[in-house]
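Design review, sub-item: ligand-bound model
Attendees: FS, YL, KQ
YL presented the inputs for the copper (II) ion complex:
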Amino acid sequence: MEEGQEVEITFVYGDKDFSQNNPHVIAIPALGITTSALDENNPEETVRFTAEESGEVAFMCTNVDCVGHTNLLQGHIMVGEHGHAEGEEHN
Ligand SMILES: [Cu+2]
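KQ shared the predicted structure:
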C-alpha cells in the first residue's frame, strides 16, 4: 500500500481446525485500531484507515491468553512513499 492511500484490511479468524475456540484481538497501535475478539462467533472484521506516513506499521494480537500468542506479535504492513509504488508508471 501507498502513503496517503485509504485502505481496508479484513482480519479473518484462521483457527477453525482447533478443538477449542481461540479468540484473537488484533491491534494496530500506531493507528489507534483494535478489533473485537475474532473467533468462531465473529470470524471476520474489517478495519479502514488512511496510511499517513510511509514505513512499517506493526500489528499484533493483544489477547495474551490465546493459543499460539507468541507467534502473533510481529505482523507488519508496508507503506510505500507516495509516487513510488512498485510498478507505477510516470508519463
Ligand atoms: Cu491471538
